[in-house]
Amino acid sequence: MINDDLILEDYDLEPGKKILMGNIAMAEGAIAAGCRFFAGYPITPQNEVPQHLSQRLPEVGGRFIQMEDEIGSINAVVGASFAGLKAMTSTSGPGFSLMQETISMAANNEIPCVICDVQRAGPGSGIVSLPHQSDVMQAHYGGNGEYILPTFAPSTCQDLFDFMMDAFNTAEKYRVPVVVLSDAFLGHNHEQVIIPTADEIRKKIIPRRRVLLDDDGNILNPKSYRPFTYEDPSNRGHYIIPPPPVLGTEYHPNWMPTVTHTPDSIASEDPYVSTKVNEMITYKIISNADKICKNDRRWLDDSNIAVLCYGLPYRTAIKAVKDARDEGIKVGIFRLRVVWPLPEKEIKEVAESVDTILVPEINLGQILIYVKAIGGCDAKILPITAIGRLHEPKEILAKIKEVNK
Amino acid sequence: MALLPTYTIEKPDHPYGKNTFTGLLSGHTFNLFCRGCGYGTIAHLFTRVWEDNGLDLNYPNIVGVGCYSMIPLVLPGHKNMALHGRGIAVATGLKLANPDLKPIVWEGDGDALAIGTNHFVHACRRNVDMVVFLLNNKTYGMTGGQLAPTTPEHYKATTAPYGMLERPFDPVKLAISAGATYVARWTTAHPRQLMKAMKTAILDHKGFALIDIVSQCVTYFGRKNKMAEPIEIFRWIKNNSITIKKAEGMSEEELKDKIVVGEFLNIKKPELSEKHIELIKKIRGL
Q1: Which long-range contacts (CB under 8 A, 24 or more apart) does A119-124 make?
Q2: Is the domain defined by A296-404 classed in CATH 3.30.1340.10?
Q3: By the CB < 8 Å criterion, does A58 face chain B?
Q4: What structural domains and CATH numbers belong to chain B?
Q5: Which of A6, A84, A247 lies at the smallest CB-CB distance from B78?
Q6: Which of B72, B99, B284 comes nearest A61 by C-beta?
Q7: pLDDT tens-digit readout, B87-102
Q8: Which of A139, A273, A346, B77 would be A179's cystine partner, CB 3.0–4.6 Å?
Q9: pLDDT tens, B12-67?
């Protein structure tokens, strides 16, 4: 198949503590996760990702290409994924918008890939060097059709390294494009990153399945291979996710259409099939939300105020919450490591146990709407808004004190 | 069962033989094109090239969006549909990720010359090893006969009821100037030459190969331009086709509505996926 002798499977950087820039930590995380193909287009503030990968990918036998635009980039990533390589692209807000058409297609055809979005202040060309959690909704609702992409929200450079591995694992396991939402501050932040050993990384990552195996570990007969996810006939609401098809092998449907299709890759214009497809690509993620979602809960058991945050604001929110607790205010913190799918059950539990939830976000409240919808009946939910900058801890502390009165 | 035609296993001698031979190879008994459409012919010719040369799964078909997206139903091999105009970008990623494959990209004039021109010219420049069949019917057949970037000047389309005001694109000149290494143009009226060009591009050439296949759209281009019968538009293509040799001495005015056919370019240049392999070998010391 692929010339395997060229590709170095193991991670080659020596383990230990290092000071890395966020974007470079993200690029290294991708290599550790087994990414061996990158296609991208320059856009500030993600430029260090392709710069670093253009040097590093050939060292591990990977392919780097700078495409003619973001649309070409994401399509080349899709092509590389068809060929059986783990592939990613990175971009920023405007480029992410250009990619949406293909991301929607990749969700429909269940093509595993990773899209890193180093967000910058919008709208329009915005401010290229300032952060803005502007693409949270776009990651979910950016394209046509209904689907959900697992979306990771790192807060530190260590997260950037670690979450890339989680992102690739999620993409492989659930056959879905995965989004990692970094931002301009985090991408340019230099911080300590602890790099695990190659053995630890090997145990952690899910490799791309090149020889396709069935559930019992036997080599799958190409004739019994169903190319797309289908509902378990004996267990309604649960989905069986087959390995992704690989071009050049027999594990590929005769015709893989981008139009609505049945699990056996037959194009269809039946509204019933359309309903099934939309349900399948959405619910295969939502039904596994408890496995995909990872949350940090701290000091929530005795608190009557909770701070719910994700991504960059976690850095100052944790400081504000610690300060508030030092002053005797009963406040806890709930951090989303994964934004989509939302851990609705946990948010509901938090809302039931506290009086007020504060949601610091670097936008006008994109997750706030959801938190209100989930827990609005049980708790008062208030935003803390900042755009183009990170909240100062004293801002969040002042808000905590205000609602504590 | 009475509706199904009966086959003979024997291969028809003439390339215009029964379409049912194509159907026989792929297990389909019909194609979905309009009466007199050229795409059935092209599918048929490609199937013959595939069969004659024993091509296998290492030649994946990447198909864009247009009437010709229905060609896969009668094609052998694995077919992967891409979005409108993005087939060449997908094939670029595919070729780099697995250099053992040789993608065969099916594009329409709308795909390659309107929405996906960017990918098209850059793939020419990079000289990525792939074959692009540009199915050029001079209109947007699937969406209802709108003007295409290849519609000749003064010809009519549903969005050009008073005649096309713009000048058409010449994909051959575009590909040559962008750096493609194999460029040919044939029409559905030149089946044998087209088959030969397909074989050369797929098997004998390494690098970006473009075959501009001029085809007839009876339902829209023909009807709008007073060639409502399949044979009329077919004759229009045949009578307007001239070889490169004949076209050499002709002025621009004389060449206006003519379709210059032939093999324009067949050169060897370093190919991108090979360069990547060389680079990796050099860096890794293999």
Answers
A1: A119/A92, A119/A93, A119/A181, A119/A182, A119/A183, A119/A184, A120/A44, A120/A45, A120/A92, A120/A93, A120/A183, A120/A184, A121/A184, A121/A387, A121/A388, A122/A93, A122/A94, A124/A94
A2: no
A3: yes
A4: 30-244+254-284 (3.40.50.970)
A5: A247
A6: B284
A7: 999 999 999 999 999 9
A8: A139
A9: 555 444 444 555 555 555 557 888 888 888 888 888 888 888 888 899 999 999 88
